UniProtKB/TrEMBL annotation:
This is Peptide methionine sulfoxide reductase MsrA. It comes from Georhizobium profundi. Keywords: Oxidoreductase. Coiled coil: none annotated. The active site is at 57. It catalyses: [thioredoxin]-disulfide + L-methionine + H2O = L-methionine (S)-S-oxide + [thioredoxin]-dithiol; L-methionyl-[protein] + [thioredoxin]-disulfide + H2O = L-methionyl-(S)-S-oxide-[protein] + [thioredoxin]-dithiol. The gene is msrA.
Amino acid sequence: MFLIDMFNKKTAMPEADRALPGRAEPIPTAETHFVNGKPLKGPYPEGLEMAYFGMGCFWGVERLFWKMPGVYVTAAGYAGGFTPNPTYHETVTGQTGHTEVVLVVYDPKIVSYEDLLRVFWEKHDPTQGMRQGNDIGTTYRSAIYTVGDAQAETAKASRDRYQQALTDAGLKSKITTEIAPAGAFYFAEDYHQQYLAKNPGGYCGLRGTGVACVGG
């Protein structure tokens, strides 16, 4: 993503009591989605549901989901860590515990959670641990943060099916995806929101999208 990432080799989670202190107030971000103009933080229409996915650099991940029919709005942010209201430059030190995550607000009548999970498994490598490709560090770990018991059960069942598919294909790779209940989600800075709509030739980081990735 940025030159600072070259020095981000933090591949072990920090202890909670040693994480950066953060701040009480949210960091500034965009009010509306750059692509569809909908409110980034809501309120969202009744009947919509939320999902959270970490698949490495959130720039390419967010574009992947905002293009799906039935997705109302997406947002880049940080989750799974300890530091309240972290900044990007804090997360990449590896001292906040967060991973880069995309919030997906979707209409389950149009697109199912299972459909979202299928994209999740197929568009990144969930076996790499604390990295995704050339992006190394805890902020790039694979993660699914679930909302409610139904999502948790569905996510774990889909992981098990995907692991079996890898095994059946003769691969010894083990899925390292973190699956945990969704905690606090912190919206990333304005310039991260819908980054690839603002910078069409920017770094993507995903596999199997047919999009050339530049920068780094």
